[in-house]
Amino acid sequence: FPDVPEIKKEKKIFFLLGFFILVAISFLVSEIKNYGWSEVVGLGYGISIYMLVQKFSEKEKNILENTIMILGLVASIMGLWWYFHFPENRIAGLFFEMDKKAHFFPNAFALFLLMVWPVSIKALERWGKKEWNFWKTGIIAFLLTILLLTFSRGALLILIVQCLLMAFYKRKKIFSCQKQIIAAGMMIFIFFFGTQHLRLQLNPQADAN
Prior knowledge:
The protein is mainly alpha-helical. The protein has seven helices and two strands; from the N terminus they run H-H-H-E-E-H-H-H-H. Helix 4 (106-125) packs antiparallel against helix 5 (133-148), helix 4 packs parallel to helix 6 (153-169) and helix 5 (133-148) crosses helix 7 (178-202). The protein is globular and about 55 Å long.
């Protein structure tokens, strides 16, 4: 959740509990059964952790946000290295086992990045200095490019929803950030197609896959 003054604590709790109930119902009525009870419980704990973090001081929140962002960047860089040198056509970050090729989870990594990139925006907002705007935009563009390279259709749909919600909540500030948004879009375009080109140069066999 972004720290938006219009959203009161009671509304946040109501939304989170409603979300958890819907997830549990989805698990119970799903015919595909590809979403386990462990995931439901995990999301429940995630809600508890979110409520706990609200009690943190600003300094503690800053440390946590920076740690999450760094973990996302490290996993993305490692995943990109693997993507360049091995035949898999999707990035999975560190969500795989090297000795078991079947244990390769790009969709799980996409879910991880869906949680990381909004937190990274919050972390980067604390940097403050305008001189860092280029690097801040580049970091977010890089994370989003890696997310796109997971080629997860479900994650892409959620990303669109995230962007729409963020645009709504930040509607009063969005016009002041339009240069950064345009720059991020251009960077994502360059990163995405540049990555694909570089991969074919480093690993010609990737084209055959």
